[in-house]
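user: Here is a favour to ask of a fellow structure person. I have my own habits and do not want them to colour yours. Could you put it straight underneath, so I can go through it closely?

assistant:
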Amino acid sequence: MTKKLLLFCFLSSIFCVGLTAQTVEELKAEKAEKAAALSALQGEINAIQAKIDAFPGWKVGAIGTIGFTANGFNKWLGQANPNSFSSNIGFAANGFANLDRDKYFWRNRANLTLGWTKLDLNTEVTEEGEDNDYQETADAINISSLYGYKLNSKWAISGLAEYRSTILSNFNNPGFLDIGVGATWTPYSNLVVVFHPLNYNFVISDSDLSYESSLGCKVVADYSQALPMGVAWRSNFSGFLSYSDPGNFSNWTWINGFSFTAWKGIGVGFEFGLRHNKQESYNALLTGSDISSDDFKIDQLDELGDALGLKNSDVNPIQSYWLLGLTYTL
C-alpha cells in the first residue's frame, strides 16, 4: 500500500510539473503575441505622428531641465572646512515656435540657462560680513528668429535676427545682436543650415568695456534626432566670422541637449554648451585689474595674460557649461 501511495505521489508530481511547464509556455506564447501586437500598434502610432509633424502649420514645443544638489559637513575634521554646507540650483529651458507654409517658413527658438550656488563655510556661527546668499553661477539667454522664402523644397532666401546676452546681473552688457540675410538649406526635415554672408554683428556694452561691432558672415546649424532608448537630441551651432578682424572679432556658440521622457512628460535631461569669444576673454581679463585697454589691445591678449601672470589656457579659453537634472516636456 505504501509503495502504491509513493508511486501515486511521484506520478502526480511529474504531472503537476508538466502542467506548470505547459502553462508557462502558454503564457510566454501569449506574451509574445501581445508584444507583437503592441509593436504593430506603436508602428502605426509613429507613422501617424510623422504625418502630423510633416503637416504644414505652426509647431510649438518646450522642454525644461532643473538640477539640484546639496551637501553638508558638521565637524568633519578630515577636510579643510569641517563645518560647511553648499547647494547648487540649475535651470535650463528651450522652446520653439515654427511655421511652415508652401512658399515660406518662420522659425523661432529661445534658450535660457540659469544657475545659483550657495556656500556656507561655518554652519554653526556666521561670521560678520559673510555672504551666505545664493550667487549667480550660470546666466545665458539666446533668442533667434529666421524667416525664409522658399525657392524649392531645400533652398530658401532668408533673413535672421539673433540675440545673445546674460539676464541676471549683466543684462545687455555685453549683448550680441546679429542681423543678416543670405540663404537657408534644409536637406532634411530635422536639419536646418543658415549661411548669411551679409551679416552685421552689433555688440552692446557700457563705456568701461571694449567691444567692437563688425560686418561678417553668419553660419547657423540646427539639428534634432531621436536616438535609441527613447533619447531625444537637439544640437544648435551659431558662428560669426568677422570680415574686418577674423582672429579677434569672430565668435561661436554650440549647445547640445539630451532628454529622456520616462512618465507623462517627466524625465531626465543633460545639456552642455561651448563658446569661444576672444572679445569676452579680453574684457574679462581687464575687469578687476589695474590695467586699462590703453595699455594692451585685443591683439595683445597673450601679452596681457603674461602681465597678469596667467597660463596660456586661461587667456583665451573655450568656455563651457553643463547641467544634469529632471526635465519636463510640453
